[in-house]
From TrEMBL:
Pfam families per UniProt: GrpE
Protein name as catalogued: Nucleotide exchange factor GrpE
Keyword list, A-Z: Chaperone
GO BP of this protein: protein folding
Biased composition (Basic and acidic residues): 1-12
Cited InterPro entries: GrpE, GrpE_head
Matches recorded under Gene3D superfamilies: Head domain of nucleotide exchange factor GrpE (2.30.22.10)
Signal peptide: none
Spans annotated as Disordered: 1-25
MF terms (GO), sorted A to Z: adenyl-nucleotide exchange factor activity; protein homodimerization activity; protein-folding chaperone binding
Amino acid sequence: MSPRKENQKHMDQVNQPSLPEPRYSFLSRERGAIREMKEAKPLDRQHQQVLSMLSGLQQNFSSLLQVVTNRLSYDKTKEAAFDKLYKEMEELKQDQELNQLRPLYIDLILHFDRMESIYRHGSVSPELTEILKTLSGELIEILYRRGVEPLYTQSDYFDPKTQQAVKVEPTSNPAEDNKIVGIVRHGFKYKEVILRPIEVVVKKYQP
């Protein structure tokens, strides 16, 4: 073949238009895309189901938490109400007991005063003095077991909460104003209730 004919053949091959892609190749890609979409849909549904389940669990947990909170608040309120009621009942019980037994306690305290006055200031034999001291000590023990206790001075100066001034002595020293100089009778209390204040002698400043 001559060179001219070979060149012409080469030019014809170069200028030959490309054939369209076979149809079966396009259909294959389309089927693959459809298959991927079908495979993705179940995953999306599962994801939605999981989210829905988690949302339901969160709502149930919130409801349960609210129930527990309300229950704890109710229990605390109920406990406080019972404590208050119990305290009021105890106070009422003590008040009733004191009202019933107060006359007896006062009589026993007066007997203690008489015995103490006799062996401190009376002219009695030493044997009788010891007997009276023993009896007065036993009487204090009986009162103590009933909740009645002697009052004691906490300071050298007058305290109107637990003391009663039955005698006043004048003083020219301002530092001695309201100073206790003597105890006339002991005071007693029933738990926190004053049955009888301590009767004392105090100094009063007079310039």
